[in-house]
TrEMBL record:
Any GO MF annotation of the entry: spermine transmembrane transporter activity
InterPro entries recorded: MFS, MFS_dom, MFS_trans_sf, Sugar_transporter_CS
Name of the protein described by the UniProt record: Major facilitator superfamily (MFS) profile domain-containing protein
Domain Major facilitator superfamily (MFS) profile residues, every copy: 73-499
Spans annotated as Disordered: 1-57
Native organism: Dactylellina haptotyla (strain CBS 200.50) (Nematode-trapping fungus)
Length: 512
């Protein structure tokens, strides 16, 4: 789901060792020249040093670890991703307290949500060089500790400006847990064989964190101040960090092989020059994703679709308290509990994707491989085709039932369909992008998706209240529903014409 490739290549001499070489002389040579050549010391040029596994059954390869170990290594990135995204909307139900304490408008009180989410878009640029230099484990160790530190600083913020800045930094240093986590799953599992559930668990965790944040934030801010929403993040993240970190293993192949080579006294490959390493990192994490958004229809269309659904989720962090507060006089605790519907929808969406993957996709994948053919990668879009119906149903339902004359449970149930559709669309888009683009191109495609997704998530809350007060709940949500109807075409178009766009791509894509 997150990466392609096999565990090893054909067995070879480890780390580029070579046998002694012979020196060949020309057939026609005079005795003087031969004497000179005999006295000269000939130094053979060593071949390039290559680090690789000892063989397909190498116990150091994370994919060969015992099943229990691999399951445990899946937990940290999922839990870190959950806590980081939980922290993003956790305080939104307490914005009235922030307004009162800092004497700011409702829109200004929402800006820390925007800055924290914006950090998710910027953070992967920090994660890439750190993981290249130190491995994945140390990215988790350093970035999550800094995330907890700046979350604590947010809780101690003396004014709204400081809160915005601390939340931005917390988002930036927390984002590597999201960016590097996908790589950890790919290190440990072969998602075409036995890692589908692990990958789905990892993807689902940030969405659950985003949906549960307002639930617990509303409950705790009802009895405490908004600062306790930050202390809640620390109370969850701190003990989890201390418990998980000592048992984590490094899963990044270059880091494992480098450590092994040092222990065996073997030479290491030459390090790239600093400028070349920085250029490569910027290419993969910034320039190439932006270029793919501008030139690759597959990346642009699917990223826009997932970004819109993510933007609507973050819009709901302001729209649901406003809508249920004005129509049903819900307080922040009751408004937060509405997001339980989103959690139910996310779980149902993940289960539906698993069923589709196990029945339709896996059967056709195995049948194609058995017949020496490549499976149609567009089969990955079946989940998005199903989920695309969930968004307009949910939004139109919410738009015209969230009114005082209709019981509150009716619009609350509509959010289930939203979570269901959102989860299916994102899972399908992610697997389709990774299976379509190869190696670094796949990483850049997902980086492009994340850049647009978190950009929408940062911006949408800023215009929510103006939109809902100006147009009304029904018309404002209907505008979103109409956009979702237009975007429904995306998975269907690429299911039908995806092969054409793949073959026209300037990047390394899966060709039929």
């Amino acid at each position: 789901m997150f990466g392609r490739g096999t565990n090893t290549t054909e067995p070879k001499e480890p780390y580029g060792s070579s046998s002694s070489s012979e020196v060949a002389f020309p057939a026609a040579v005079n005795s003087t020249d031969m004497e000179q050549q005999k006295t000269e010391e000939v130094e053979p040029i060593p071949p390039p040093v290559t680090l690789d596994w000892d063989g397909p059954d190498d116990s150091g390869n994370p994919r060969n670890w015992p099943f229990i170990d691999r399951c445990f290594q899946t937990i940290p990135p999922a839990m870190f991703g959950f806590v980081v995204t939980f922290a993003s909307p956790v305080y939104t139900t307490a914005t009235q307290q922030i307004q009162d304490e800092f004497h700011v408008s409702f829109e200004t009180a929402l800006v820390p949500l925007t800055t924290h989410t914006l950090g998710f878009a910027l953070g992967p640029m920090l994660a890439a060089p750190l993981s290249e230099m130190f491995g994945r484990k140390y990215v988790y160790l350093s970035s999550f500790a800094l995330f907890l530190l700046f979350t604590m600083a947010s809780g101690l913020a003396p004014n709204i400006a400081a809160l915005c800045v601390f939340r931005l930094i917390a988002g930036c240093v927390g984002a590597p847990a999201l960016a590097v986590g996908a790589g950890t799953i790919g290190d440990v599992w072969d998602t075409h064989k036995d890692g589908g559930l692990a990958a789905m668990f990892f993807i689902m965790s940030p969405f659950l964190g985003s949906s549960l944040g307002p639930v617990f934030g509303g409950l705790i801010s009802y009895h405490k101040t908004w600062r306790w929403t930050m202390w809640l993040v620390l109370l969850i993240g701190g003990p989890m960090y201390l418990w998980l970190i000592p048992f984590m293993k490094e899963t990044y192949k270059p880091a494992i092989l480098k450590k092994r080579a040092i222990e065996r006294g073997l030479p290491l490959p030459p390090k790239p020059k600093g400028s070349e390493a920085i250029k490569k990192i910027l290419l993969v994490t910034l320039f190439r994703p932006v270029h793919m958004l501008m030139t690759e229809p597959i990346v642009l269309a699917l990223s826009l679709y997932t970004a819109f659904t993510f933007g609507v989720l973050f819009l709901f962090f302001a729209a649901i308290p406003y809508s249920f507060g004005t129509q049903y006089h819900f307080d922040r605790r009751e408004s937060g509990l509405i997001f339980i519907s989103s959690v139910v929808g996310i779980i149902l969406g993940a289960l539906t994707f698993g069923i589709i993957d196990r029945t339709f996709y896996k059967r056709r994948y195995e049948h194609a491989i058995a017949n020496g053919r490549k499976p149609a990668v567009e089969l990955r879009l079946l989940g998005a085709m199903v989920g695309s119906f969930g968004l307009p149903i949910a939004l139109f339902w919410f738009a015209w039932t969230c009114k005082a004359s209709i019981h509150w449970i009716v619009p609350a149930l509509s959010v289930i369909f939203f979570g269901f559709g959102m989860m299916l669309i994102f899972l399908s888009a992610a697997t389709y992008l990774v299976d379509t683009y190869q190696y670094l191109a796949a990483a850049s495609a997902m980086a492009a998706n994340g850049l647009l997704r978190y950009g929408f998530g940062a911006v949408f809350p800023l215009f929510t209240i103006q939109m809902y007060t100006g147009l009304g709940i029904g018309l404002a949500t209907s505008v979103l529903a109409i956009i979702s109807v237009v975007l429904m075409a995306v998975p269907f178009v690429f299911y039908r014409f995806g092969k054409y766009f793949r073959e026209k791509s300037a990047y390394d894509t899966l060709k039929d």
